[in-house]
Amino acid sequence: MSAGAVLTDERRALTEAIRDFARRECGTREQRDRLTDGGTESHSPEVFRKLGELGWLGATVSEAYGGAGGSVVDGCVLLEEIEYGLVPAFGAGVTLIVAAAVEEFGTHEQRERVLPQVCGGAAKSIAMSEPGAGSDVGSLRTSAVKTEAGWVLNGQKTWITNAHHADEILVVCRTDRDAPKHRGLSMFLVPAGVPGLEVRPIATMGPREVNDVYLSDVELPRDALLGLENQGWTQLMAGLNFERLIGAAWMVGVARRAFDEALSYVAQREQFGQPVGAFQAIKHRIADLATEVECARLLVYDVAARVERDPGTQLPREVSMAKLKASETARRVALEGMQLMGGAGYACEYEMQDLVRKALPMTIYAGTSEIQREIIGRSLGL
Fold first, then answer.
1. How many CA atoms lie within 13 A of 48 on its CB side?
2. What is the pLDDT of residues 9-66, one digit of tens each?
3. Is 243 among the catalytic positions?
4. Average pLDDT, whole number, for the chain?
5. Helix crossing, 72-84 with 9-26: angle to 10°?
6. Which of 61, 133, 200, 335 could lock onto 140 through a cystine, CB 3.0 to 4.6 A?
7. In this structure, are residues 96 and 56 in contact, taking their beta carbons and an 8 Å threshold?
C-alpha cells in the first residue's frame, strides 16, 4: 500500500496546514533561534502551545477527551511534518506516547485530567532507561514501594527525552523485587516539581534534549499508578507499535528534509560551467537517496495502515523493520547530504549540519538498530 493510499483528504489538509504553520512560525533561522534560545533547545513551549491550540496534538486522542480521535496514521502524519518543517517541538513524540498509555491503561479520572492537557499543549515525558538498563529495560532498578499513604519512589533514570519541559513524567519502576525481571514492573505519573524529583541536563553534540532524572523518596498518592500493579512490562509491550511507528515517521521527516536540502544545493551550485547535480556521479547518488527515502516512507505508512485496520494487532517484525529502515535512512541521507554539499554542509549557515546532528542518534532512540535487527531475526526463526 502506498503512502498516498492512507493519506485521506483530511490528512492531506493537515499536512498542508502544518507546512503553512512551519513556514509562518519558524521558517527562518532567525525565528528558530528566537524560539530555541539560539539553537540550544530543540523544544519550544511557545510553539507547542500553539500546536495544541490548533488541535493537532490531540490527533490521536479520543474525541471524548478533546482530541480528534485519529489513529496511528494521523500520529505519523503529524510527527513527519513537524520534523520536515523544522518545527521546534521535540517533545511531540513522547507526549503522544504518554497520552496513548494513559488512554489505554488509565482510570477515567486520569484520562479526564491528562488527555485534555495534552490536547492543549502540555508536554509529557516517559522515563524507562537507567544507567544499568538501556536496551535491557527489564533490568531496571528504580523502585516504588507501597505505603499507607501511597507510594515512595527511589532511583535514577537517564536519557529521558524532554523531561525538563514536561509537566509530568511517566516513570517505570520495579514494584516487586522478587518477581522475574520482566514482571514486577509498574508505571507511575510523576508531576514535575514534586519534592525529591530532580532533572539534570545531559550535554550532547546537539541542543538540550535528554536528561538524568533523580527520584529521592518521591511520595505519590495511590492514584499515581497507571494501569495495573506489576503489569508495566505488558503495558510497555502493548504500546510498542505506536511508539516505534510515530518515531519512524519522525525520522522520515528528517530524511525528507535532508534530501530536499541536498537536492536544492546541488541543483543550484555550479562548478565547471554547470550545476554539480548535472554530473553523473552526483545525479546517481541523488537518485539512490530519493529511492531510499521513498522506500522508508512507504514502509512506515504501510505498517501504520495495517495497525490502523486492526489496532489490537501486534506486528513486532514489521514495526521493527519500519523503525530500522527509517532511522538508518535518515542517518545515511543526512551524512551523504553533507558530503554532497561539501563545506556548505558543515557550515551553520545551512540546515544540513543541524540535520546531521538530528539524524545520528536516531539509530539509538526508541530501540537501537541492533535491537530492531535482533527482533526481526528472531521473528524469522533465528
1. 25
2. 899 999 999 999 999 999 999 999 999 999 999 999 999 999 999 999 999 999 999 9
3. yes
4. 94
5. 30
6. 133
7. no
Q: Domain end: 83, 99, 122, which one?
A: 122
pLDDT at 179 over 70: yes
User: DSSP per residue over 216-280, as a string?
Assistant: EEEEEEGGGEESSTT-HHHHHHHTHHHHHHHHHHHHHHHHHHHHHHHHHHHHH-EETTEEGGGSH
CATH code, domain with 10: 1.10.540.10
**DSSP strands (E only) in 131-192:** 143-146, 150-161, 168-174, 185-191
Shared-domain flag, residues 267 and 164: no
Given this model, what pLDDT does residue 5 score?
A: 67
The distance from CA 138 to its chain's CA centroid, rounded to whole angstroms, is 21
Is there a single domain that holds both residue 118 and residue 34? Answer: yes
Sign of CA dihedral 104, 63, 25, 266: positive
> Could you list the residue range(s) of the whole structural domain that residue 59 is in?
3-122
Confidence of residue 167 (pLDDT cuts 50, 70, 90): very high
Question: Which of 68, 90, 122 corresponds to the end of one domain?
Answer: 122
Give me the DSSP letters along 53-69. HTT-TTTTS-GGGTS--
What's 258's domain CATH number? 1.20.140.10
For residue 62, report the phi and psi dihedrals to the nearest 5 degrees.
-60, 150
% residues pLDDT > 90 (the chain): 89
Using an 8 Å Cβ cutoff, are 123 and 48 in contact? Answer: yes
Catalytic residue, chosen from 243, 261, 328, 351, is 243
Tell me how many domains the chain contains: 3
